[in-house]
Amino acid sequence: MNSTTEEILLDSRLHDVKRAIASLHAPASVEAALVASFRDRTRHARRPRLWWIPPLALAATIALVSWMVRGPMTAAPALDAREDPGPFLALRPLERIALEPSTTVVATEFPRALLAEWGLPVSPERAGEPVRAEMLYSADGEPLAIRLVN
Amino acid sequence: MDMPPVNPQPELALLARMRRGDEEAFVALYRKHCDAVYRMALLYCGSTAAAADVTQDTFMHFMTRPDQYDGTRGTVGSWLCGVARNLARKAAGHREEPTDPEALADDTALHDAHIEHETPLERLLADERAEKVRLCLAAIAPHYRDVLILCELSELSYAEAAQLCGIEIGTVRSRLSRARTQLAQHLAREGLLIGRRAAEAP
Predict the structure, then answer these.
(1) Could you report the predicted ipTM of this complex, rounded to two decimals?
(2) Residue-range definition of the domain harbouring residue A62
(3) Which of A4, A24, B61, B132 is the most buried (most CB within 10 A)?
């Protein structure tokens, strides 16, 4: 047998294998398993995008609650320090105040209408509202000066 | 075998959708290539169960590492065949003797140790003659069988086979030629290279 005939026969035999193997298909179970894996992976792939929300919500809740519980005790001085109410308004002559040997500052709250008695302007609509102020008193309790806190 | 160029765009579009988690795109790509991958795995492994495992592992790899596919270096089909080839060779590795690279430099002098002695026993093909040819194919040296499966039976181009095997195209051609010679010797020994007329002659 010459080499050309052998080549033709060899091609023919390889073609037999190709034809026979062409009738074989991947088992359906492989596709089912892969699709299940794909779904599983897709579901897991989406999960990490939101994983941080529950811990963040928990941390925010803890921070808020701790601020609400502990805030007033620590925040009050800071608030006072932050709020600069400005200078006192004299209710008595400055010479009289300067001669006073000892004075006391007292934080207080009173109806806004009381400001009118010391000659300070009061809006009639807000006359009933309380007002926070710091009062400078003389040693015998006489109001010398006032400064409004808010 | 040189194949006509195909438009890669539809497949690349499917791949992009698959990467975004589109199940339909994955299934479409699987159905397009699964049989070619399975058949190639069958030829390497010689077992339907092992071929099914290799097919599943190949597409699991595709699903989990689609970024490894480089569209500039070939089609999705040839890349999948490359993954399947590596997995199938690994699965069949226990049956194959390692080939010395120095011996491959002059692979005309084929040492007997490079030939696989243990052939797969499972009958894969219904056609008796085709099954005998397959068993002869399984009996030739692994590095020759490799190019024969890729170029002759899986219809990859020489360039694709060269890329998958990590060898030059010229080496693919020479190995293919020697693979055919070896296969012809095995077929002749089995009386499978006799033409119909010669077989009928007294």
Answers:
(1) 0.78
(2) 54-83
(3) B132
